[in-house]
Specification:
643 residues; Pyruvate-ferredoxin Oxidoreductase, domain 3; Rossmann fold; 4 domains; 20 helices; globular
Length: 643
């Protein structure tokens, strides 16, 4: 089979249907047996500013984007200006024919910082700021330009549908770009029609309109550009059942199948998408015979209420969670401390984004590792579990509840914007092995003639748990230090024993959780060079690792999934063998590398870091690693790709 690696990007004003276009494009490719990986980038305003979706299509599973764009579907002039440099020679740009005279430096939504850099570029190339001149320059380096009369095509649609005003269907430009795109690569239009029907399945009239727009645009591309793009997108045969999910959706489905029955949240990007998805699918038919899973979603007045309400629900016996991002987690800290003090098995799904403060509300960040580990006043145990890809997001959402109830402590499921807002095609997730582990819970039959002590001292620090309302299981919860019954106690001896009881749980986690649930190792165990990382850089690292080992470099990758408590002994054993340790993270200081040094005394030899609010791509990670392996790298490299 010939290798397929096609990179498609849709870009336009926020609110113009960029996400819808990408979803339809991805689904259509999936229906044709292809794998898809896509990431969504958008501004924090509601409408108007530039957003884009970068989709990578392949005949095998892909887990990160490249820097390259093979076909840019531009809804407006700004999309061309921002991304023209990413389109590869031999690639193409779909552009509105009526916008060729646009003076690019007068585009009102371009920020002054961008205009300054872009103006210098125009001067260096001897170009005016006319969009048409910019496109002519692109042609000189082998980029194909496909001028499409969007307004004429919309008029055809309006006439066919009997619509009197074009303003009513302006948003259909997104479907026009899809039709032209698939026409240029000669893809089966029936698969695209199926994707449109699926995406708009709850609105039959919209389906009919969009199918018409799709066909008109597809036919226009075939007639006007008979040679098409210098690429053909094949349809592949497969009997494999697959799904197309974003990170938010994977977490949501994992939670419901993992037994979550109460989800609380206050709206915040990018976390809110998860709760809204659960809310839209509160009853999910599972693949477990005879089991339907239901969950109640509660939007609270603030994040303080969200964490406390979730904690209260867990005390009654429900599996409960809350989801938030950095600013919201800051507000949750007092409630988190209360949960830690009272050994509450609550799950917090923490979606990192650009920080500090409000920072980059809709952009990527991986800066909150230390905050997640240390947030709270005083010391209390918690588990911090970091997913590295969308599949892990699904399974870790289930595992987080098992850890929380088994060890009776808060679990922070640490994700980031790159995972939340990326979408990927997978073989259907295997759920037969999913197990619900509720830990040590006592029912009424175990409480007869027993003086129940909720916080009884044990060897592991984990005490038998009773749900609120269980007959014979009277106990107390307080924000103060307490004795075994839960009554307030300020006695020094009790305080010492109670602190030690709680902290013993970290030793139990370290001892009882298998190492393959804490780390993943990829590559040759005797490799001379080892990459250390966590979270979403995983996909770009793995693709780079495969390519570099194929070129003869001795390289391996240790992915840390349980970042707290860190499996220090195992990490040290792995890293001690390496001649070069390469820390790859998306924060300024290399936080995991610093934590490893604190816990093991082992320093990172090289750092590859990124903190511009955009995820790492395979292209830039590969290039940075190769410089290290070739002995030409500075100790610290900072990656900057992304618009």
């Amino acid at each position: 089979m010939a290798e397929v690696d096609f990179n498609w990007m849709a870009g336009g004003p926020q609110g113009s249907g960029v996400d819808a276009a990408a979803n339809i494009f991805g689904r259509a490719c999936g229906y044709g047996g292809l794998y898809v990986y896509g990431r969504r980038e958008y501004h924090s305003n509601i409408k108007g500013l530039h957003s884009y979706f970068h989709l990578r299509v392949s005949n095998h599973e892909v887990s990160a984007n490249l820097n390259d764009v093979d076909l840019l579907a531009a809804f407006d002039a700004e999309a061309v200006v921002r991304h023209i440099g990413e389109v590869v020679p031999g690639g193409g740009i779909i552009v509105d024919k009526d916008q060729l005279e646009t003076r690019t430096l007068t585009i009102p939504t371009l920020p002054p910082e961008f205009k300054s850099v872009f103006q210098n570029y125009l001067k260096s190339q001897g170009l005016s700021d006319r969009l048409g001149d910019l496109l002519e320059n692109a042609k000189k380096r082998g980029v194909q330009v496909f001028q499409v009369p969007y307004m004429e095509l919309l008029k055809q649609i309006a006439n066919r549908l009997g619509i009197d005003k074009l303003s009513k269907i302006m948003r259909m430009i997104n479907v026009l770009t899809i039709g032209v795109s698939f026409g240029l690569v000669d893809y089966d239009i029936k698969l695209v029609e199926k994707a449109v029907k699926t995406f708009f399945r709850e609105r039959p009239k919209i389906v009919e309109m969009n199918i018409l727009a799709l066909k008109i645009a597809y036919e226009y591309a075939k007639k006007s550009f008979p040679e098409g793009l210098n690429f053909r997108l094949p349809k592949l045969q497969t009997n494999e059942e697959r799904i197309f999910l974003s990170g938010n959706q994977a977490v949501a489905v994992g939670k419901v199948l993992g037994g979550c029955r109460i989800q609380t949240y206050y709206p915040i990007t990018p976390a809110a998408d998860e709760s809204e998805y659960i809310e839209a699918h509160e009853i999910l038919g599972t693949r477990i015979p005879g089991v339907d899973a239901g969950v109640v979603v509660l939007q609270t007045e603030d994040e303080i209420a969200a964490i406390n309400m979730a904690s209260g629900a867990t005390l009654t016996g429900a599996r409960a969670s809350t989801s938030t991002s950095g600013p919201g987690f800051s507000l949750m800290v007092e409630g988190l401390s209360w949960a830690g003090n009272n050994e509450v098995p609550v799950v917090i799904t923490y979606y990192q984004r650009g920080a500090p403060s409000t920072g980059l509300p809709t952009r990527h960040g991986q800066d909150d590792l230390r905050f997640a580990i240390h947030a709270g006043h005083g010391e209390f145990p918690r588990i911090v579990l970091a997913s590295g890809d969308i599949k892990e997001c699904f399974y870790d959402a289930i595992t987080a509840f098992n850890y929380a109830e088994r060890f009776q402590l808060p679990v922070i499921h640490l994700i980031d914007k790159a995972l939340a807002n990326s979408s990927q095609t997978f073989p259907i997730f295997e759920t037969k092995e999913v197990k619900i582990q509720r830990g040590n819970i006592l029912g009424e039959d175990k409480l007869k003639d027993v003086e129940y002590r909720r916080f009884s001292f044990t060897e592991t620090g984990v005490s038998p748990r009773v749900f609120l309302g269980t007959r014979g299981g009277i106990h107390w919860y307080t924000g103060d230090e307490h004795n075994e019954f839960g009554h307030i106690s300020e006695e020094s001896a009790n305080r010492t024993k109670m602190v030690e009881k709680r902290m013993k749980k970290l030793e139990a986690v370290d001892r009882e959780v298998p190492i393959n649930e804490k780390v993943n190792f990829f590559g040759d165990k005797n490799a001379e060079n080892i990459i250390i990382s966590w979270g979403s850089p995983k996909g770009a690292i793995l693709e780079s690792l495969n390519k570099l080992t194929g070129e003869g470099f001795s390289l391996a990758f240790l992915q840390v999934r349980m970042v707290h408590p860190l499996p220090s002994k195992h990490v040290a054993e792995v890293l001690q063998k390496a001649k070069k340790i390469i820390d790859v993270e998306m924060n300024y200081s290399g936080q995991l590398g610093g934590i490893i040094k604190e816990k093991t005394g082992i320093s990172m030899d090289f750092q590859i870091l990124k903190y511009n609010g955009r995820p790492m791509t395979t292209t830039e990670v590969y290039n940075a690693l190769k410089i290290v392996l070739s002995g030409q790298a500075p100790r610290r490299q900072v990656l900057t790709y992304g618009s």
